[in-house]
């Protein structure tokens, strides 16, 4: 993977794999792309909202549509751009500072971690990341995002 890049803003693309909150003063998010990391001043929530708007809708509109059509009430997957099959799901409640966002199309598979409160996401580019979310919760989030993809694609 190439050296990290620092940017002021960011829009999700098909190369985006995950968005993590950064615990740094200089930037708000760490973006994992297929071939690089990007440090962004915006928070994960700001990136999700800006990306929805970039692709023609508001975050609130996308969220309400998922609630209306699928009945999900918490940790709602968001169709950033259904025409490009860009769907993200949160790992935690949006009020939790540790909430990361994972791009569904980049996941190769998920795996249980020896620590039952964690799990491992294996991405298509052979990278992997350990998340502070149980395997059962992660599996549910992946499945819900698949359902969202079927409904909105």
TrEMBL record:
<protein>
    <submittedName>
        <fullName>Competence protein ComK</fullName>
    </submittedName>
</protein>
<dbReference type="GO" id="GO:0030420">
    <property type="term" value="P:establishment of competence for transformation"/>
</dbReference>
<dbReference type="Pfam" id="PF06338">
    <property type="entry name" value="ComK"/>
</dbReference>
<dbReference type="InterPro" id="IPR010461">
    <property type="entry name" value="ComK"/>
</dbReference>
């Amino acid at each position: 993977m190439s050296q990290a890049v620092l940017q002021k803003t960011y829009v999700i693309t098909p190369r985006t794999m995950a968005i993590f909150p950064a615990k740094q003063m200089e930037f708000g998010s760490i973006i994992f792309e297929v071939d690089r990391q990007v440090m962004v001043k915006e928070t994960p929530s700001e990136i999700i909202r800006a990306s929805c708007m970039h692709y023609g809708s508001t975050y609130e509109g996308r969220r309400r549509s998922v609630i209306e059509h699928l009945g999900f009430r918490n940790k709602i997957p968001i169709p950033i751009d259904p025409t490009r099959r860009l769907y993200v799901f949160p790992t935690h409640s949006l009020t939790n500072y540790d909430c990361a966002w994972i791009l569904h199309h980049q996941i190769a598979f998920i795996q249980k971690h020896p620590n039952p409160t964690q799990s491992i996401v294996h991405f298509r580019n052979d990278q992997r990341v350990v998340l502070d979310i149980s395997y059962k919760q992660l599996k549910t989030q992946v499945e819900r995002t698949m359902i969202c993809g079927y409904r909105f694609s």
